[in-house]
Design a protein that fits this description.
This protein is α/β, with parallel strands linked by helices. It has helices spanning 19-30, 46-52, 77-82, 99-108, 122-129, 150-153, 155-168, 183-191, 201-204, 209-217; strands at residues 5-9, 36-41, 57-60, 87-90, 114-119, 135-138, 173-177, 196-199. The protein binds SN-glycerol-3-phosphate. SN-glycerol-3-phosphate binds next to β8 and α9.
Length: 220
């Protein structure tokens, strides 16, 4: 069986940036689970989060396919890796990039550095899968940040995207996200053919993040 992932995107939520990012990372690190739990943090918070929670897997929220040199303001993969990033999201609905950007990024990062490309729909998931990232995460933009999990609101997009990705590649991992809040949502995601979930507000905006995380992993 493939490993199962719970990927928590900190975005720029007030409750998940700066010192709050470090506190949330510590909570995530303290959760005992066989699932692969990942914090996806702002580039500004990367170093601090990695040093405060060294046993937690940490990704960045975006990278640019650039090398050392004259690249003012761009997010350099090698610097992220040196600062402890083990992977990145790319093409999130809130930070879209071109397909060329993603292809070049995949050529830039070393083997073992995880790239999860986000797709808004099945066609985009197909196009991204052909590039062979480690994961493709399908997230219908209209459900992001909402109260209803994609696995309930639109289970068909999850299962059909999972099938479409499998037609293209056996290797590309499949995630889904948008509105995911609890263990039932995660279980449903797995039943629909994914290896887990990408979520944000279900952890970053709740009163008791530890409890939310325990619930999320309770059925895997
Ligand atoms: O990257 C995860 C995100 O877009 C989903 O957000 O708040 O619906 O879990 P949320």
């Amino acid at each position: 069986m493939r490993e199962q992932l719970v990927v928590v995107n900190f975005k720029t939520y007030e409750t998940a940036h700066g010192i709050a990012a470090e506190k949330l990372a510590l909570i995530m690190e303290s959760i005992e689970t066989d699932a692969r739990m990942i914090a996806v943090v702002s580039a500004f918070d990367l170093s601090a989060v990695v040093s405060v929670a060294p046993n937690l897997e940490v990704w960045t929220q975006h990278l640019d396919p650039i090398s050392f040199g004259s690249n003012t303001g761009w997010l350099h993969p090698e610097t992220a890796i040196q600062r402890g990033a083990k992977g990145t999201l790319i093409n999130h609905a809130e930070h879209k990039v071109s397909i060329e950007h993603i292809a070049m990024l995949l050529d830039t990062v070393p083997e073992g550095f995880t790239v999860c490309a986000c797709a808004a729909d099945i066609d985009e998931a197909r196009a991204l899968s052909a590039l062979m990232p480690d994961y493709v995460a399908v997230e219908p933009p209209e459900l992001i940040g909402g109260d209803i999990s994609v696995t309930t609101a639109d289970p068909e997009i999850v299962s059909s995207t999972a099938r479409a990705i499998r037609e293209i590649s056996e290797e590309v991992g499949i995630l889904c996200g948008a509105g995911v809040k609890n263990g039932n949502d995660v279980l449903k995601a797995i039943e629909l053919g994914t290896s887990g979930v990408l979520l944000a507000s279900g952890v970053t905006k709740v009163e008791d993040a530890a409890q939310a995380l325990k619930d999320l992993i309770s059925k895997i």
